[in-house]
Automatic annotation (TrEMBL):
Residues 28-157 form the TNase-like domain. Residues 158-176 have a biased composition (Low complexity). Residues 150-198 are annotated as: Disordered. InterPro entries: SNase_OB-fold_sf (IPR035437), Staphylococal_nuclease_OB-fold (IPR016071). Pfam families: SNase (PF00565). CDD domains: SNc. The lineage of its organism: Bacteria, Bacillati, Bacillota, Bacilli, Bacillales. SUPFAM superfamilies: Staphylococcal nuclease. Keywords: Endonuclease, Hydrolase, Nuclease, Signal. Residues 1-26 form the signal peptide. This is Thermonuclease family protein. It comes from the Bacteria.
């Protein structure tokens, strides 16, 4: 028994030596300081780690070989003023990291401001929900609807620049100015939320697939239906 107790103690010591205290965990959180704003939705912490906000997508300003997108500078400047040097709380969803080894997080200021939501509600970002990190998807959808209805930020700009003819309106499956995020590996099905708030998914090869702007990506039709999306009516 004594020998067994010694062995168990040694094993516990080895496991403890191999563990990584403070390592971001699914559904966990951590305190951090924003050292630098890379882009409207991407930041660098004082530790040197990069953070990508979950569920939102601001127009590109620093993507290599990619032009600065409309309202990108405004979104980047807003994030710089809001976050540079600020102490924040990062909360994680199912996946703490993306494939680029960036932290995936919901970010909160010390006064409780939910940064991800604020960027969407003020019109500096579109929603970009990629399963399995969907804990705040409904809140972001509500925030984007409010921003669009009030022509805030990029929605006001897109109305003027992309739909100059007031008699021409987008079709029910189209959503002006929403850009496709990079397609996650193994998730070919596009999920789109149209101007009426209808959640519709499109499979590769369908009539509207190519022109549909994806806001969510799914691996299977069952996964899309579970998230509240339906197939097109035509």
């Amino acid at each position: 028994m004594k020998r067994m107790a010694i062995c168990l103690a040694l094993l516990a010591g080895l496991l403890g030596a191999c563990s990584t205290p403070g390592q971001p965990q699914a559904n966990g959180e951590m305190e951090a300081t924003v050292q630098r704003v890379v882009d409207g939705d991407t930041f660098e912490l004082s530790t040197g780690e990069k953070v990508r906000l979950i569920g939102v997508d601001t127009p590109e300003t620093v993507k290599p070989n990619h032009p600065v997108e409309p309202y990108g500078k405004e979104a980047s400047d807003f994030s710089k003023q809001l976050l540079t040097g600020q102490k924040v709380t990062l909360k994680f969803d199912v996946e703490p990291y993306d494939k680029y080894k960036r932290l995936l997080a919901y970010m909160y200021l010390q006064d409780g401001t939910f940064v991800n939501e604020k960027l969407v509600r003020e019109g500096y970002a579109r929603i970009m929900t990629i399963p399995p990190n969907v804990a705040q998807a409904d809140l972001f959808l509500q925030a984007e609807r409010e921003a669009r209805e009030n022509n805030r930020g990029l929605w006001g700009k897109s109305t003027q620049t992309q739909n100059p003819n007031p008699t021409k309106t987008p079709t029910s499956t189209e959503k002006p100015s929403a850009a496709d995020p990079s397609q996650p590996e193994g998730k070919p099905i596009k999920g789109n939320i149209n101007a009426k708030g209808e959640k519709i998914y499109h499979v590769p090869g369908s009539s509207s697939y190519e022109q549909t702007k994806a806001e969510m990506w799914f691996a299977t039709e069952e996964e899309a239906k579970a998230a509240g999306f339906r197939a097109p009516k035509r």
